[in-house]
Write a structure and sequence with these properties.
Length: 837
C-alpha cells in the first residue's frame, strides 16, 4: 500500500497497552454495552452483558489474530487446512477466558460486584454445527493446533440451523429447530468482501482454443456465492490465534434488484431464497449416509469456496501455483469433503491451464484423508445420475482420474479384473455409484484411521485393496481430546486439586498427569478426590432435577452413557442390565445392591426408527423403575435431554462409571470414552475402538472389560449366529426379554417394543444376546468395587493419571510430523502500523 512519506504511522495495536488488565477489560465492557448494544446498565439484560463481554474478549482475540496472520504471511509458513463438514466447538466465552489466562481474575471481579460469572457463561448459545464425535474431534483439533502454535485454518459451513435441540415428550424425542443465530453471534466476523462463486449443475462442452488445445467449458445451471464468516480460535497460553472460516451461501450479484419489472423482482427474490437454502441446515444423521442432492451440493460448496480461498491467498504472495503443495496441507475429515480432490484438479487444469500430470502431483501432495468408520452403511457413495446432475464436469474428471488409476492397477496386477473392479472409483456391481472413500484414497498421499484397532481393521477389510497397493500411505493416529475444555474448564474442582499437587503444566503436557500416581493411595488426597467427585455429582443432580424433575442421590453410583443413539452403540444392552437389576429387586426387595443412578443422553437421527424407539424404551423403563416403592430409590434411571457440548461439560466430571459398550469392531475410536476417564470415571467396556488403548494405558486391573472380541464376533457370525439360543439357555436373560415383551413397560401395550424384541431374538446384528452375560457379570463387579471406597478412588486416580496419551495435542503432533510436515511458528504481540500493511 502506498503511504506518503513522513506520515505518522497509524498504530492499530499498542504492545505497551496491557489489554488483559481489569481496567482495560472493564472499560471495553462498558463501551461495548453503550456504543455497540446501545444499552444503559439499568436496562441491560443478562444476554446484553454476555454480549458486551463477548465482544470485549473478541477484541483481545482479534489483536492476536492480526499478529498471527501477519507472521504467517511474512514467514511464508506452511498452513494446515482442516476441511470438515462439521464443527462442534461448544460455548466460546469460557474457553477463551481460560486460554487468555484471565478466568480466575474475571470470576473474582464478577464475584466482587455480587454477580456469578457462570450465569453469563450460561447465556451463550453453542454452535451446534455437527452431529457428534466427528464434529467435536474437529473442534478439539483446532484447539490443539492453536495451542501448539501450528498455522492452521478450519474450513467449514455456516449452517443457519445446526443440530436440532432435543426435547422429550411422552418419552419420545421431539426435534426443535436450532436457532443459534437468533441473538446474533458475537464471535464471528462477517467478511462480505471474501466471497467466491460456486457453479452447480448444467453441462460441459469441449472445444479447441486458438492453439488447438482442448478447453472445457462448464455451463452451470446456477451459480451461488459463498461468503466467509471468521471465528478466531485462540491457543492456550500462547499468542497464536487461528481462524475457523465458515461459508454461507448467498445469491450472486447478478441477481441484484436493479433493472427489473415485476416478474423479475419475484424471480430475483426466489433465486435468493433458493441460493440461501444451500447452507440452511445441517443434515442430522451421524453415521448412516443419506444420498441427498442438497447434501452433495453442500459438500461441493464447502470444498470449492475453501480451495478458491487458498488459491487467492497463495497468489497474493507467490507468482504462481507451482509451489502450492509446499504452502498448504489439507486434511479431509472423512469423505464429506473428498470432492475437493476433483475440485482442485478442475481449478488447476480447467481454470489455470496447468498440465494434468503436474496438477495431479500437486493434488496428491496436498491432500490426506482420515477415515472415521467401518460401518458399510456409513460409506458415502453417490448414484452416478445424481452426481452428473450436480457436478457434470467433476464426473468427467473422475472418469479421467479413474482411467489413469486403473491403468496403473492393471499394470500392477495383470489380468486381475476383479481387483480393478474392487479398486475402481466407480462401483459398477449394480446401479453405478461414485465411491468417495476410493476417491479420497487415490487423491491423497496419506490415509489414517482413528485408533489402533480401527486402522488394523481398515487395512484388513474396508481398504484392504488400497493397503496392498500402497502400504506406505497408511498411518494410525489415535484420536485425542483437548484437556483445556474437558478438564481445566469443565472440572474446575478437580483442576484445583490436581494443581495443588503437581502444578498446572499438565494442561499443555497431559503426560504430566502421571505425577498423580504417587498420591493414588494417599488418604488425604483420596478424601479430597472423593469430595470433588461428590460436589460435581451434586451439581449434576441439580441439573437433572431442573431438567427432568427426577431426584437422584449424589451418593449413588453415577453410571453414564452419553453419545448418539445407534444400535451398534447398544444403549439397549444398558437397558437390559437395568431390567435385570429391577427384577432382582422385585424378587427380593431387601436385597443389598449398590445404589445406582443410570444416566443416558444423546440424540437420535430423526429418520432412524430403532434409535428413536430406544429413547422411548429408556424413558418407559425409567418411568416404571423410578416410582416403584420396592426399588426404594436404590435404582434411578434418567434420560438427560439435549446432550450437547454445554451439557457434556456438566456430565463428564460427575461420572463414576463410563459405559463404552459398542459391539467390538463397530466404534472407530470413540472420544467420550477419553473424556470420562480423564475426569476419573472408570470404564465398563468392550475391546472396541480406543477402549483397547485406554485399557492398555490405565492397566487392565483398572478397567471393567466384557464382551466378545472382534475375532470372536467374526467367528460367531461365520458360524451362523442364533440369538434365540441365548434366550433359551439363559434364564435371567429370558426373564428380562419376557418382561419387556409382556408390555409391562408400555402400560400393557405388547406392540410398542415388539420391533426391538424381535430384532434381538431373531436378528441381533450387534450381538447383545451374546454379550449379555459377561456384561452383567462385569456390571456386578463394578457395583461391588464401588462399595470399596479406597480401591475405587485409587482406580479413579490412576485412570486420570494415565490419560496422557489421549490429549488431542499428542494426536496433532503426530499429524504434523507424519502427515503434514509442518512446524510451529512463534507469535509475538507487536505494534502494527498501517505502513506494515
Ligand atoms: C462420526 O461422528 C463418526 C464417524 C463417522 O463416519 C461419522 Br459420518 C460421524 C465418529 C465415530 O463414530 C467415532 O468412533 C469417532 O471417535 C469419531 O467419529 C471421531 O473420529
Amino acid at each position: 500500500m502506498a503511504i506518503e512519506e513522513k506520515t505518522t504511522p497509524f498504530i492499530i495495536k499498542e504492545a505497551s497497552d496491557n489489554d488483559l488488565d481489569m481496567e482495560s477489560l472493564g472499560r471495553d465492557l462498558n463501551e461495548n454495552l453503550f456504543y455497540y448494544l446501545g444499552k444503559s446498565p439499568l436496562v441491560a439484560t443478562l444476554q446484553d452483558i454476555y454480549h458486551a463481554f463477548a465482544l470485549t474478549v473478541r477484541k483481545r482475540l482479534l489483536q492476536r489474530w492480526i499478529n498471527t496472520s501477519m507472521a504467517y504471511v511474512k514467514q511464508k509458513v506452511k498452513v494446515v487446512c482442516y476441511f470438515s463438514a462439521e464443527y462442534l466447538p461448544g460455548p466460546h466465552l469460557g474457553n477463551n477466558l481460560l486460554n487468555l489466562g484471565i478466568f480466575p481474575t474475571i470470576s473474582q471481579a464478577f464475584a466482587r460486584v455480587g454477580a456469578n460469572l457462570d450465569y453469563f457463561l450460561d447465556q451463550e448459545e453453542e454452535p451446534g454445527l455437527g452431529n457428534g464425535g466427528l464434529g467435536r474431534l474437529a473442534a478439539c483439533y483446532l484447539d490443539s493446533l492453536a495451542t501448539l502454535e501450528i498455522p492452521a485454518i478450519g474450513y467449514g459451513l455456516r449452517y443457519e440451523f445446526g443440530i436440532f435441540d432435543q426435547e422429550i415428550r411422552d418419552g419420545w424425542q421431539a426435534e426443535i429447530t436450532d436457532k443459534w443465530l437468533q441473538w446474533d453471534n458475537p464471535w464471528e466476523i462477517h467478511h462480505p468482501e471474501i466471497a467466491y462463486e460456486v457453479k452447480l449443475g448444467g453441462c460441459c462442452q469441449t472445444h479447441p482454443d486458438r492453439d488447438g488445445r482442448l478447453v472445457v467449458h462448464w455451463h452451470p445451471e446456477r451459480v451461488v456465492k459463498g461468503v466467509a464468516y471468521d471465528t478466531p480460535i485462540l491457543g492456550y497460553n500462547v499468542n497464536t490465534c487461528n481462524v475457523l472460516r465458515l461459508w454461507k451461501a448467498e445469491a450472486i450479484e447478478s441477481f441484484d434488484f436493479q433493472a427489473f419489472n415485476k416478474g423479475d423482482y419475484y424471480d430475483a427474490v426466489d433465486e435468493k431464497l433458493v441460493s440461501e437454502n444451500l447452507t440452511k441446515v445441517l443434515y442430522p444423521n451421524d453415521e448412516p449416509f443419506e444420498g441427498k442432492k442438497l447434501r452433495l451440493e453442500q459438500q461441493y460448496f464447502l470444498c470449492s469456496c475453501a480451495l478458491q480461498d487458498m488459491i487467492r491467498l497463495h497468489l497474493h504472495f507467490a507468482p504462481n501455483l507451482g509451489d502450492f503443495h509446499e504452502s498448504w496441507a489439507v486434511q479431509l475429515n472423512d469423505t464429506h469433503p473428498a470432492i475437493s480432490v476433483v475440485e482442485l484438479m478442475r481449478l488447476l487444469v480447467d481454470e489455470r491451464q496447468i498440465p494434468w500430470d503436474q496438477a495431479w502431483d500437486t493434488t496428491r501432495k496436498v491432500f490426506s484423508y482420515t477415515n472415521h468408520t467401518l460401518l458399510p452403511e456409513a460409506l458415502e457413495k453417490w448414484p452416478l445420475p445424481l452426481f452428473a446432475q450436480v457436478l457434470p464436469r467433476h464426473l468427467e474428471i473422475i472418469f479421467e482420474i479413474n482411467r489413469r488409476f486403473l491403468d496403473s492397477v492393471r499394470l500392477r496386477y495383470p489380468g486381475d479384473n476383479s481387483k480393478a473392479a474392487r479398486l475402481s472409483l466407480i462401483d459398477e456391481s449394480g446401479d453405478r455409484y461414485v465411491r468417495m472413500a476410493h476417491l479420497a484414497c487415490v487423491g491423497s498421499h496419506a490415509i489414517n484411521g482413528v485408533s489402533a484397532l480401527h486402522t488394523e481393521l481398515l487395512k484388513s477389510s474396508t481398504l484392504q485393496d488400497f493397503f496392498e497397493l500402497w502400504p506406505e500411505k497408511f498411518y494410525n493416529i489415535t484420536n485425542g481430546v483437548t484437556p483445556r475444555r474437558f478438564l481445566a474448564l469443565s472440572n474446575p474442582r478437580l483442576t484445583a486439586l490436581i494443581n495443588s499437587k503437581i502444578g498446572s503444566d499438565w494442561i499443555k503436557d497431559l503426560y504430566k498427569l502421571r505425577q498423580l500416581e504417587e498420591f493414588a493411595e494417599d488418604p488425604d488426597f483420596q478424601q479430597s478426590w472423593r469430595e470433588v467427585k461428590l460436589a460435581n455429582k451434586r451439581q449434576l443432580a441439580n441439573a437433572i432435577k431442573a431438567r427432568t424433575g427426577i431426584s437422584v442421590d449424589p451418593q449413588s453410583m453415577f453410571d453414564i452413557q452419553v453419545k448418539r443413539l445407534h444400535e451398534y452403540k447398544r444403549q439397549h444392552l444398558n437397558v437390559l442390565h437395568i431390567i435385570t437389576l429391577y427384577l432382582r429387586l422385585k424378587k427380593d426387595p431387601t436385597l443389598e445392591i449398590t445404589p445406582r443412578t443410570i444416566i443416558f443422553g444423546g440424540k437420535a437421527a430423526p429418520g432412524y426408527f430403532m434409535a428413536r424407539l430406544i429413547i422411548k424404551l429408556i424413558s418407559s423403563v425409567a418411568e416404571v423403575v423410578n416410582r416403584d416403592p420396592d426399588v426404594n430409590d436404590r435404582l434411578k434411571v434418567v434420560f438427560f435431554p439435549n446432550f450437547n457440548v454445554k451439557n457434556a461439560q456438566k456430565i463428564y466430571p460427575a461420572a463414576d462409571l463410563s459405559q463404552q459398550i459398542s459391539t467390538a469392531g463397530k466404534e472407530a475410536s470413540g472420544t467420550g470414552n477419553m473424556k470420562f476417564a480423564l475426569n476419573g470415571a472408570l470404564t465398563i467396556g468392550t475391546l472396541d475402538g480406543a477402549n483397547v488403548e485406554i485399557r492398555e494405558e490405565v492397566g487392565p486391573e483398572n478397567f471393567f472389560l466384557f464382551g466378545h472380541t472382534v475375532e470372536e464376533v467374526q467367528y460367531i457370525k461365520a458360524q451362523g449366529y442364533n440369538p434365540y439360543l441365548y434366550y433359551q439357555s439363559n434364564e435371567h436373560l429370558r426373564e428380562v426379554i419376557d418382561l419387556l415383551r409382556s408390555g409391562f413397560f408400555a402400560h400393557g401395550d405388547r406392540d410398542l417394543f415388539r420391533p426391538l424384541v424381535e430384532s434381538l431374538l431373531y436378528q441381533d446384528d450387534y450381538l447383545l444376546m451374546a454379550d449379555y452375560q459377561s456384561y452383567i457379570e462385569r456390571q456386578d463387579e463394578a457395583g461391588m468395587t464401588f462399595l470399596d471406597k479406597k480401591r475405587w478412588t485409587r482406580m479413579s486416580i490412576l485412570n486420570t493419571a494415565r490419560m496422557g496419551k489421549f490429549s488431542s495435542d499428542r494426536a496433532i503432533q503426530e499429524y504434523c510430523q507424519h502427515i503434514w510436515q509442518v512446524k510451529p511458528t512463534f507469535i509475538e504481540l507487536q505494534d502494527i502500523t498501517l505502513e506494515q500493511v
